[in-house]
Design a protein that fits this description.
Number of domains of chain B: 1
Strand content of chain B: 25-35%
Largest sheet of chain B: 6 strands, mixed
Oligomer: heterodimer
CATH architecture of chain B: 3-Layer(aba) Sandwich
Strand content of chain A: under 5%
Helix content of chain B: 25-40%
Shape of chain B: globular
Structural class of chain A: mainly alpha
Radius of gyration of chain B: 17 Å
Order of helices and strands of chain A: HHHHEHEEHHHHEHHH
Chain lengths: ~300, ~230
Amino acid sequence: MFSLPYVTQQFINAIILGSIYALVAIGLSMVYGILRLINFAHGDILMIGAYTGLFLLTIYKAPFAVVLIVPMVVGGLIGVIVERVAYRPLRKAPEVALLITSLAVSMFIENLAIMVLSPRPRRFLIPSFLSRSHFYGAINFRNIDVLIVLLTIILVIVLTMFVKKTKVGIAMRATAESINTSYLMGINVNNIIMLTFAIGSLLAGVAGMMFASKYGRIEPFMGFLPGLKAFVASVIGGIGSLPGAVVGGYILGFAEIFFVGFLPPQLSGYRDGFVFLLLIIVLLIKPSGIFGQAEKREV
Amino acid sequence: MLRLENVEVYYGVIRALKGITLEVKKGEIVSLIGANGAGKTTTLRTISGLLFPKRGNIYYNGKNITNIPPYERVGMGIAHSPEGREIFTGLTVYENLILGAYLRNNRSEIDSDMKWIFSLFPRLYERLNKPAGTLSGGEQQMLAIGRALMAKPKLLMLDEPSLGLAPILVEELFEVIESINKKGTTILLVEQNANMALSISKRAYVLETGTIKIEGDAKELQENEEVKRAYLGA
């Protein structure tokens, strides 16, 4: 069958891909938790993060630490602006209006990127010390891969601590349960929503950098598919749940890599189709996902 | 302390409050009684800022707060323990209480208030790190009141605190409400249990379909034939 090194290699690939999905899924899931909005524009923040990184690398020759941090900040900022301009005016509107608006925002950002940045794909070259490979027999991975996984783990731990332990983190969870009751606690709900967008978009920004570093190629529509897949990941984990988004991200990473790695090569082209088949299956068997609770709606 | 003047509140096109004028003075316990749908809960939600009146004004300590957002009203000392408890079921008892003190920063004062709440409701201390959703109905009610007290309110609004509680607990609860009031907190109480409410109140308002039907001294209302017949089941 398959050799141990081969299986190990697939494992490593799955963890890398899963890390990126997890980071994107967290933002999507947190926003859904509070606003019941599936933010279709979330994937486009990933694209913005990647382009920001590209310009820092090529034009400003910035050190890689800067190239990691600035796209986070830019991503977070764009997320906050989108919330303020597009979603906040719809706070009292039906949820479906919000959903359609997020589609419009996504198209707006993508087309703006085509106009401003040109639709032409660009090469994304990372500094040589990051693209250096390590070989252990038939197994290999690059420094950037290690960085992706470590950074994801650190960000998830920091975020979990924040949400669990700090007063503002508790307020975020409270707001996800009930906006009205949160008001009665003296919580400025708009600020909490803004913060949620900032955090989620910040993670999407850095995920964009990771995605670009891994694949070496970026273009204005690059965020669309990862955004959709992050949605699948958060549904698998239970949309609205932070650990759910992380677990869902890794499950999706594993499913996708294993599908390509262990099934006949002719099927590889159906990789994305398989992901959405997985979504359909989860929705049929356990629509609330692994960590999700059955919906208690406020009216 | 609190004054509503001709407050009208709409749910869409339905006029839920048809011009309410009422007053709560510092240090009082004031009750709102009335049948379901009379507008008691709507009144409290309007005072805390979850609903905004279409007409009329709300004054708090002389300041017009009609258009101030709810979270700022909490900072001014208005706390609301809402109908149906509305505790955060996914959060622990401790987290619920901490959120009650969301706008306060003095750590030692918060701790001492939390100790005071545990002395009022020892059950909460026993369940401190349990998810609030696992509490019994009575415990959840204690948590909702405790959480509102954590805001260190000057005006505490309680919406149906006795709902669903065993009679013995109701007695205890009303004793606690009286003791909170004696410590200097003004209380606006909405109750189905009109008898109990009137017995601890100084004054009361009887609501009927969005208007104030009768108002006056609580003791007098307890003797009022109309109130007796309609609300006290005598």
